[in-house]
Amino acid sequence: MAQDLADWRKNTLAPALGKRLETAFPEFGFRRGSGGWWTATKLPAGVTIKKGDITASGFGFKGWSVSQSGFTSWADYLEDKGHAFPENLKELARLAGVDHPFLEMTSEQKEEMGRKETQRKLLRDFMALAKTHLLGSKGESAVSYLVGRGFKVEDLDRLELGLCPAVQEVEKVLTSKGHGVEPLRRLLSDSRWVGRLVGSIRDPWGEVANLWARDLSGKAEQGDKYLYLSNEAALTRKGELAPFGLGEALQRGGRENLILVEGVLDAVHLQARGVGNVAALGGDGGQLTPEILERLARHKVKAASLLLDNDSGGQEGLKKAMVNLGRAQHEGTPTPELWVVDPAGLAPQKDPDAFLKAHDEDPAKLLELVERRTSANLFRAHSLLAGITPESPEAARKLATSKVVEFANSLRGRRAELDREDLFRLVSSATGYTFEALALEAEHLEKVRVSRQEAQTLKSLLSQAQGDHSEGGGTRKVAQELRRGLEKLHTIEEPPPLFSVDRLTMETEKTPDGRPSGWTSLDKPESQGGLGLRFNPGELSLFGARTGHGKTSAMVGLLFNWAVSGESLGLDEKLLFYSSEEQEARIFHRLMALLTWRETDGNEARALRSNEVRDFLRQGAHKRAGNPTGDLLRQAQARLRSWEDRLQVIYRPSWTVEAIVAHAKAVADRETVGAVLVDYLQRIPCPEGGKFDRRDQEVSAVARGLKVLAVDLSAPVVTGAQINRANADTVGQGSKKRMEEHLADLRKLRPELHHLREGGAEQEVDLALGLLNMRADWGGDTPPDEVTPFEVGLMKSRYGAVGQWKPLAFVGKLHLLRDPKDGELKG
């Protein structure tokens, strides 16, 4: 609940109060301006407000500057008016018009929150005492130190700075304010604090959560220049508050470009001089850990610039920061875009506030220096190439090149592609190698890295499988676990590219046209009465139909049309047909039947049915010369034999979608795969090891696997899908009319996308075509050789208007779909 209360103050109270200041605190006469709240009313003694000082933001609510205590929150203001904790928070809730969660807390939670509020008050009272000490006679040397660093005396009245008095004085003053001895002893348990410059560290809600103390003697040991409260005395640990001053910086432009300096006092000074978007690491660059980078990204910091000291410590810190950035990128940790200001740019000064003082306290000079920053990735590459020129020894040039190229391959995140190009140009300039050679080297090194990683993973998987088997694990179960592990070896070798208009335009120009179906009535443009049908690379298409409506005929017909067009165009590609419905021989007989129709120039009376092809082949008719049927079979065989390298029919009804994908990719590794056809969706077993509560989830998983295959192969993938039979009734049962007189009723039985049996696939497909075989739904008599009206419609399309249906002709005895002849289909 303690954390819930903090969240309430940040996410509920602060925004609500920030909208009602004029009514919540009428005594100030607040007005809203473009830069925040402001007032022209005469304020209480010691209170000063500048336009924009009072703001509401995602990081809490800032109060106002008070000359004697540095900062006063609204809760403190109400406490000064007699509302002690928790009544002050309740009163703020009332003023903001929001509910207060404090009443829902248990007594233990209330006690814990009360303890924290008491500790906050102790820290605030200590800082007020320290400020009095700094501005009094005992603080003269400390003030001189600050002035020497560039602070102005008039700054000190409004900054959260103080000088730690002797322990006895602290105890005397603060006990008189009601603070207990034990909390005071915890506060000053480190005697090194006495005589040091001290300041507040605030949490994102503007509350004092920790304190810092800086040595002024110059005698502190390495790493002890800054001290922080112990965990027992602080409300929040130092590491959880870094970078220090972040909340203030984010309110003043830090999200667009946060400047990170080393020392807390540096940040205080720069903010006093008007550089508001600055925060402190509280140490050298090594403090910029992956955790801190992630924290900045969480606070939506887009870019951060490192402005470290111009000394050996600053240079070493930069190296540490670069290593930490590399770790974060390797681990996929979200980070802001990181930039580096070369410390040498501060010369001859050592740190940012000395630089500012040397340039007459002009913040524009410092901001000009920051503008000359270099991306962290390019800065690191410069360090890897230090001293390398085209005249350097070959071994040195190649070693440095490999280091930078490996580093370039590791880049992730925003602008990674642009940084890679900059790195390659830098290496090319430093070594003399061409840009093209460096790109090939990068590709080679990345393949080597992935290969090593996969080999290590494979070794681990095999070791695990061997161990599981020796411990009594069932062979089948161990094999399944091993297979699932092997599937995870498929890693993304290259990071996804950034959005680029030029790159996408080029890719679009190079993208091959989608494949027409081969049926003119469907392929011709919509303006000419067709569907403009195309099966595009990388897309999943679906033929949806009820049982007996020609799914397999459409799939085999599409395979046949693409084989014929591929032959005429001289395409060197393989067409894969995965059948879970009919055996390979049945698909072979269908193709042979279609070829006999083609070899007779479309003479359907002479063409052979698929079962006739089977029977004649059994009888050896294809071996008997001079027999018209044998001649026709041999012609079809010769034609189909010439397609052997371009077709493959796979009948494996037990194959899961993973097996189909693995096989198709294996084929694609050897030759170009032009298209993949899968007959049909609901017959493919669900992925092994998947946990699905419903059948539609299984079907969706299968469709998703086929969609990924289409993208990976950059080829169209087409599958059939079953439509529920319950969505149709037989038309014309017992009717003496001809079918053509019932076409309007038959068209009412057109399938729709939501009729898909068991559903799930409609979300994954790019193109869904419905099939309506009029004969399948006709209950009346039909001559066996009659050509049947057949319709294909758009149920889903990313390119055309759904709901359009176009006619084909279905020659049932041949399982042949073709374009209708003029006047052939009536009605």
Structure description:
The chain is α/β, with parallel strands linked by helices and 827 residues long. Helix content is 44%, strand content 13%. The chain is built from 30 helices and 24 strands. The strands form six sheets. Strands 18-17-19-20-16-21-22-23-24 form a nine-stranded mixed sheet, with helices on both faces. It has a five-stranded mixed sheet with strand order 12-11-13-14-15, sandwiched between helices. It has a four-stranded antiparallel sheet with strand order 7-8-9-10, with helices on one face. Helix 25 packs across helix 27 (628-641) and helix 28 runs parallel beside helix 29. The longest helix has 36 residues, at 435-470.
Give a concise summary.
The chain has 827 residues and is an alpha/beta fold.
Which labels suit this protein?
827 residues; single chain; five-stranded mixed β-sheet; nine-stranded mixed β-sheet; alpha/beta
Q: What is this structure's SSE topology?
A:
Elements (H helix, E strand, L loop, with lengths): L1 H17 L2 H4 L6 E3 L2 E3 L8 E2 L7 E2 L2 E2 L3 E2 L7 H7 L6 H10 L10 H29 L4 H9 L4 H4 L4 E3 L3 H9 L5 H7 L9 E6 L5 E7 L11 E3 L9 H4 L4 H9 L3 E4 L2 H9 L5 E3 L9 H9 L4 E4 L5 H19 L6 E4 L11 H7 L4 H9 L2 E2 H9 L9 H17 L5 H16 L3 H36 L4 H13 L13 H10 L9 H4 L16 E6 L5 H19 L4 E6 L4 H16 L10 H10 L8 H14 L5 E5 L5 H14 L2 E7 L15 H19 L3 E6 L20 H5 L19 E7 L14 E10 L7 E7 L4 E3 L9
Parallel strand pairs: 11-12, 11-13, 13-14, 16-20, 16-21, 17-18, 17-19, 19-20
Antiparallel strand pairs: 1-2, 3-6, 4-5, 7-8, 8-9, 9-10, 14-15, 21-22, 22-23, 23-24
